[in-house]
Write a structure and sequence with these properties.
By secondary structure, the protein is α+β, with helices and mostly antiparallel strands. The protein has five helices and nine strands. Strands 2, 3, 4, 5, 6, 7 and 8 form a seven-stranded mixed β-sheet that branches. α1 packs antiparallel against α2 and α4 packs across α5. The longest helix is centred in the last third of the chain and has 22 residues. It binds zinc ion (2 copies). The site of one zinc ion has 6 residues, from loops.
Length: 222
């Protein structure tokens, strides 16, 4: 899909992530550095963390003319926003990703179809091409940024997360606990109530019946 877009849609030199290599003049060894800050495109990230759309994306590029095209090396920095996978609180941090990509000269001058064939022949290996003097860095940046993102972002390494019983934020209430003694006390009370009266056996049976009740239904359904 990424290849199709690159080949079918003519690049707009005014697009924020389209870069011009004309100054390199196709002279191997020629070098150019560019810094550019652009607004982050939408959906740059994963479901749990990413660069907010419109956030400043600082791109530093080094374009080097080589025999077969232009080798682009760079780094991108951007603010990240997401959600801690343990406590679900919002988190923010600075993200940084490095990338290197080769943009090849088209094998034929301007024959898009020949290019497409060549790309398909190479199977999975992705070849990106220059369009005239232009290349689109967006797919490269997307891959670099997404790969650099943590799969399981946490607000802090020792985030205690949420209480599995009531969902309370344990970071704000580190001593939070559910007193099992309460249950024990209730059980003791029930037992006490049972032993003190004729309801003992029926009371115990009620409790025992509760668990197997679901299982007991199965034979009836079959
Ligand atoms: Zn957290
Ligand atoms: Zn709790």
């Amino acid at each position: 899909m990424r290849k199709q877009n690159a080949l079918n849609a003519p690049l707009d030199h005014r697009a924020p992530l389209v870069f011009d290599t004309r100054e390199l003049g196709r002279r191997p060894g020629a070098l150019k550095r560019i810094s550019r800050t652009v607004e982050a495109p939408a959906d740059l990230g994963t479901e749990v963390i990413g660069v907010p759309a419109g956030a400043p994306l600082e791109v530093e590029l080094r374009m080097e003319s080589v025999m077969e095209g232009v080798l682009v090396t760079g780094i991108v920095r951007a603010p990240l926003a997401g959600e801690c996978v343990r406590c679900l609180e919002p988190l923010a941090r600075e993200g940084e990703a490095e990338f290197q990509e080769m943009f090849s000269y088209p094998e034929t001058d301007g024959h898009g179809r020949r290019q497409a064939d060549a790309v398909e022949d190479e199977g999975d290996e992705e070849t990106l091409f220059l369009q005239g003097d232009l290349f689109d860095l967006e797919p490269v940046l997307r891959d670099a940024v997404v790969l650099s993102l943590p799969l399981q972002p946490v607000c802090r390494e020792d985030c205690p997360g949420l209480c599995p019983e009531c969902g309370a934020l344990l970071a704000e209430d580190p001593d939070h606990r559910h007193d099992d003694a309460v249950d024990i006390r209730w059980a003791a009370l029930r037992e006490f109530a049972g032993t003190s009266g004729p309801g003992e056996s029926s009371g115990r049976q009620d409790m025992q019946d509760k668990a197997p009740r679901g299982r007991g239904d199965d034979p009836q359904e079959k």
